[in-house]
Design a protein that fits this description.
Length: 320
């Protein structure tokens, strides 16, 4: 069943009518409604194009959070072979919000790490909606250090509203774990590439995305705080999230102009959820290209490249 966002309601009505006509035709073979259904399809295609040609930042947030959008597990299963999951932080326990392990991308061995949100109620609760606890970030540090030791490139897939802010997470050192993961990203001597596949929220995202190359899907978002959280702080009103989304400059297009990210990966018309296979293939192609760009750099050059990237962040946008 297709899930429609609030701004897609007119589209839902048209596509729903087309499906109703086809259901009638399936029930009664003597009824010919195909011409009328095709006319509705054409109308829906035009409306879809109009809706998505100039999405506001808030609408992009909604698309980035779409429940049918491909998640980390979908990318790993489709793009990587010989995936061997690795669990635990060797200090406290396992965090299901973060998945990672050894794998191959084509003929290239890599370490892949990402946030997993889950796809239904049960799995979302299991994965804590992609909000990692300290043990998730410490597991990521362990896997990155392992990759560094064995000379394996690291690929991270970012999709989190932010790190989990619960009492237990704070007691176990959430801020320190995020800082340590960010520090590890900046210090490993192997290629590190990151893709924001949905939401890139706060330090929980930066801890995975302090990479040599950062790409974003066209309708993903990446910000220091969610629009709702920003609105609650600045206006004391979470309903001001539309204004906050505008002010945060969280879209891929804004961040590319500011030099925060390095490339934008196009999505199918209507968002990644409308053609999951095409989206996953495009992300795989981008990851391979970014790793190829870095393959000739030695350890010192990779570390220097990463540090210079972050020290100069925003300069391009300010100069413009």
């Amino acid at each position: 069943m297709t899930h429609y966002l609030d701004f897609e309601k007119p589209l839902a009505e048209i596509e729903g009518k087309a499906e109703e006509l086809r259901a009638i035709a399936r029930a009664n073979s003597e009824t010919d409604v195909e011409e009328e259904a095709r006319a509705l399809d054409a109308k829906a295609a035009v409306l879809l194009r109009d809706l998505y040609k100039s999405l506001t930042p808030w609408r992009k947030c909604q698309v980035a959070r779409h429940p049918d959008r491909p998640h980390c597990r979908d990318y790993i299963e489709a793009l990587f072979t010989e995936y061997t999951p690795l669990a635990g932080d060797r200090a406290f326990g396992e965090d299901e919000a973060v998945m990672g392990g050894l794998a191959r991308l084509g003929d290239r061995p890599v370490m892949v790490i990402g946030h997993e949100k889950g796809h239904d109620t049960k799995s979302r609760l299991t994965h804590n909606f992609g909000m990692a606890r300290p043990e998730g970030y410490r597991k990521a540090v362990r896997l990155m250090e392992m990759a560094d030791r064995f000379g394996l490139p690291v690929v991270t897939l970012v999709d989190t509203p932010g790190a989990y802010p619960g009492k237990g997470a704070e007691e176990r050192g959430q801020a320190e774990a995020i800082a340590r993961a960010t520090q590890t990203c900046l210090s490993i001597g192997v290629p590190l590439v990151s893709v924001i596949i949905g939401e890139g929220g706060s330090g929980g995202a930066v801890a995975f995305a302090s990479a040599n190359r950062v790409a974003m899907l066209e309708h993903s978002v990446y910000s220091v705080i969610s629009p709702e959280g920003c609105a609650s702080i600045l206006w004391k009103d979470a309903e001001k999230m539309r204004e906050a989304a505008e002010a945060l400059r969280l879209t891929a297009q804004d961040l590319n102009r500011l030099g925060v990210i390095d490339r934008i990966i196009d999505e199918p018309l209507g968002g990644a959820h409308r053609d999951r296979d095409a989206t996953i293939a495009a992300v795989g192609k981008a990851i391979s290209a970014m790793l190829s760009d870095l393959s000739a750099k030695d350890r010192a050059a990779l570390i220097r490249d990463r540090r210079e990237k972050f020290l100069g962040m925003g300069a391009r946008g300010l100069a413009a």
